[in-house]
């Protein structure tokens, strides 16, 4: 009897299952042969079961030949793909090898799928067939099923790549693939807690290697649920990983597009390195729109002032009436492209920024520009005073966006449900322009309605 069969039997592998294996032979221990490990796994699934291994390549070859191109996924996968009766898919980037009754059905047409790991690939077919995944001496960061979840949601940070492969007719073909994974994923291990709490992970050991056994279908569903709630869940939380910063920027750019909105930045003065500042905005997910507030084509009016004719310079000039006048406007004055609204100024004038201006007035259908600033003002509620003691608690009047009296959360929610397709302007205070702008961008992002994060 194979000495590995007993510990493998204790893992909970179901006889007859399709078992997808990610492995590190070195982690199992010295003296263990890849053939013995494969034999033990083969015995665990039985004659009716199917074994699968990822046999991805180094992607440096001129073209992928499933019979000749080596795998770079470890010794066990490479030995497995060379065994008699092993089939291998023809995908030029993420080929899979399999043995067993379900092998052909799971691998068929992999090279023709939209992406390497998504719908109708061996990874998704395996999960939907009731299969299991076994990690031997490797962690969740090797679990290709995560990329299946990303692809099913068509997350914006996935790539488009090309690869060449040898077709069944002997011709070399080129495949253009969307939804291709790439780059770093620093938050993958955070999925383990959810999977464990749902009873979807069973822990064990083979030799010195720790193992995790997952039910592929429910695990895939759980990861799709997590990524639906937070598309950045698999990424690093900080701002120092270039890959994850770029990926989160792509997510935010998609979310802004779904909101039909733009973000621009008004600075007290231009940064010393505009190119670096523009890169920061782009990596956050915003186009490089920044300038000083006085350089914008906006005509600001005092209370009761009549709108002048806009300058005839070809620019789309925006009119910013005083808050008390804005509520009365029913049409955009001739020559102007839209109206600008500063909710904090309305609060400082004693008006309820949402109910007293947007809710009561017709201007909500005319506003194209919102100044996203927040603070403390002499604002009174329906049955309360203006909370004058806040002047003592917050003497500088500075609060995070959405935490003051500009009622920004309600305003953003109301506008995104209407025809608003305008611009949100972040007015950056004095200080380090990089740090202050990034702070405001993060605070603004917390204002967005939850549906824009899906």
Account of the 3D structure:
This protein has two domains: about 5-230, no CATH class; about 240-454, no CATH class. It has 17 helices and 16 strands. The protein has helices at about 5-10, 25-30, 35-45, 75-80, 105, 120-130, 145-150, 190-195, 215-230, 240-260, 275-285, 325, 345-350, 355-360, 390-395, 410-415, 435-445, and strands at about 20-25, 50-55, 85-90, 95-100, 130-135, 160-165, 170-180, 200-205, 210-215, 260-265, 290, 300, 320, 340, 365-370, 425. The strands form three sheets. Strands 3-4-2-1-5-9-8 form a seven-stranded mixed sheet, sandwiched between helices. Strands 11-10-16-15-14-13-12 form a seven-stranded parallel sheet. The protein has a two-stranded antiparallel ribbon with strand order 6-7. The model has no long low-confidence stretch (mean pLDDT about 90).
Keywords:
single chain, 454 residues, alpha/beta, 2 domains, 7-stranded mixed beta sheet, 7-stranded parallel beta sheet, 17 helices
Write the layout of secondary structure elements.
Layout (H helix, E strand, L loop, with lengths): L4 H5 L8 E6 L1 H4 L5 H12 L4 E5 L20 H7 L5 E2 L7 E4 L3 H5 L14 H7 L3 E5 L8 H8 L6 E8 L5 E9 L10 H7 L3 E6 L2 E7 H14 L12 H18 L2 E6 L6 H11 L5 E3 L5 E3 L17 E3 L2 H4 L11 E4 L1 H6 L4 H7 L7 E6 L17 H4 L14 H9 L6 E5 L5 H15 L7
Parallel strand pairs: 1-2, 1-5, 10-11, 10-16, 12-13, 13-14, 14-15, 15-16
Antiparallel strand pairs: 2-4, 3-4, 5-9, 6-7, 8-9
Helix pairs in contact: 3-4, 6-9, 7-9
């Amino acid at each position: 009897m194979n000495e590995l069969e007993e510990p493998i039997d204790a893992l909970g592998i179901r006889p007859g299952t399709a078992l997808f294996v990610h492995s590190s032979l070195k982690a199992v221990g010295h003296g263990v042969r890849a053939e013995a490990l494969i034999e033990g796994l083969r015995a665990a699934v039985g004659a009716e079961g199917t074994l699968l291994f990822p046999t991805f390549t180094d992607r440096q070859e001129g073209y992928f030949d499933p019979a000749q191109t080596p795998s770079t996924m470890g010794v066990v996968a490479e030995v497995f793909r060379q065994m008699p009766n092993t089939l291998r898919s023809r995908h030029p980037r993420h080929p899979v090898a399999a043995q067993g009754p379900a092998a052909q059905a799971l691998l068929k047409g992999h090279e023709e799928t939209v992406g390497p790991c998504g719908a109708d690939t061996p990874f998704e077919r395996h999960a939907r067939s009731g299969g299991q995944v076994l990690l031997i001496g490797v962690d969740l960061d090797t679990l290709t099923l995560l990329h299946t979840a990303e692809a099913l949601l068509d997350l914006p940070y996935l790539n488009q790549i090309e690869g060449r492969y040898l077709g069944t007719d002997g011709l070399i073909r080129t495949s253009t693939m969307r939804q291709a994974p790439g780059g770093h994923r620093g938050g993958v291990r955070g999925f383990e807690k959810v999977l464990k709490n749902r009873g979807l992970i069973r822990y064990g050991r083979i030799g010195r290697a720790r193992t995790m056994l997952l039910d592929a279908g429910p695990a895939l569903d759980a990861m799709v649920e997590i990524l639906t709630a937070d598309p950045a869940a698999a990424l690093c939380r900080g701002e120092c990983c270039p890959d994850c910063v770029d990926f989160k920027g792509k997510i935010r750019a998609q979310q802004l597009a779904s909101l039909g909105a733009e973000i621009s930045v008004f600075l007290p003065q231009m940064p010393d390195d505009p190119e670096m500042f523009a890169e920061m905005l782009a990596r956050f997910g915003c186009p490089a729109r920044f300038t000083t507030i006085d350089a914008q084509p906006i005509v600001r009016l005092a209370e009761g002032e009549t709108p002048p004719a806009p300058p005839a310079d070809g620019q789309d000039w925006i009119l910013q009436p005083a808050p008390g006048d804005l509520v009365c406007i029913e049409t955009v004055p001739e020559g102007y492209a839209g109206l600008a609204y500063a909710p904090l100024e309305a609060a400082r004038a004693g008006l309820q920024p949402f109910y007293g201006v947007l809710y009561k007035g017709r201007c909500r259908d005319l506003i194209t520009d919102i100044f996203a600033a927040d603070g403390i003002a002499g604002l009174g509620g329906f049955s309360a005073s203006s909370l004058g003691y806040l002047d003592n608690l917050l003497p500088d009047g500075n609060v995070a966006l959405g935490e003051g009296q500009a009622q920004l959360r309600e305003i953003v929610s109301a506008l995104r449900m209407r025809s608003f397709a305008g611009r949100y302007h972040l007015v950056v205070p004095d200080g380090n322009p990089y740090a202050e702008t990034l702070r405001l961008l993060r605070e603004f992002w917390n204002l967005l309605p939850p549906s824009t994060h899906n």
